[in-house]
């Protein structure tokens, strides 16, 4: 048996993620990556082609995000993008208090991990990152890879477990 170092839940041997909190359970020595040789490291694409096009006008900066939660979109939450926005379920015993709490979303809430995903602003974009959730995070029907940020656009539909959330981004 393995005991989660974060929440204390017990799991069978070789369990990868804790079903209670989503914490990674494998030992540190199993997380290593094979190093690349110096000749294998290089740029993808041409730097000149990838450089962003600048214009004389100022690029709008995202300042807030509005989330319409659930299939019926009855619940709306608006939060500023001045800090990271954690999404998940409240768990006072494990001191988990996400900014967007999905605990009261009925039976589908059980499909949401306590630390499920996070939204943050990077430069002039808004990104969503799955935090290794059990039931996954989706953007417009496509599952995103855990810990790999995905850019959110105004009007996107993200889904945490079985809870759909429509995204509206407000710009400066």
Short description:
By secondary structure, this protein is mainly beta.
Characterise the protein shown here.
- The structure is a single chain.
- The chain is an all-beta fold.
- The protein is built from one helix and 13 strands.
- Strand 12 (157-160) and strand 13 form a beta hairpin.
- The protein is globular, with a radius of gyration of 19 Å.
- The N and C termini lie far apart (51 Å).
Using only CA atoms, what is the Rg? 19 Å
Number of strands: 13
Q: Major beta sheet, specifics?
A: 6 strands, antiparallel
Succession of helices and strands: EEHEEEEEEEEEEE
Q: How many angstroms does the end-to-end distance come to?
A: 51 Å
Query: What's the overall average pLDDT, rounded?
Result: 85
Runs in which pLDDT lies below 50 for 5 or more consecutive residues are none
Q: Looking across the biggest beta sheet, what order are the strands in? A: 4-3-13-12-9-10
Beta-strand level of the residues, as a percent range?
A: 25-35%
Shape: globular
Q: Helix proportion of residues, in percent? A: under 10%
Number of helices: 1
Return the structural class: mainly beta
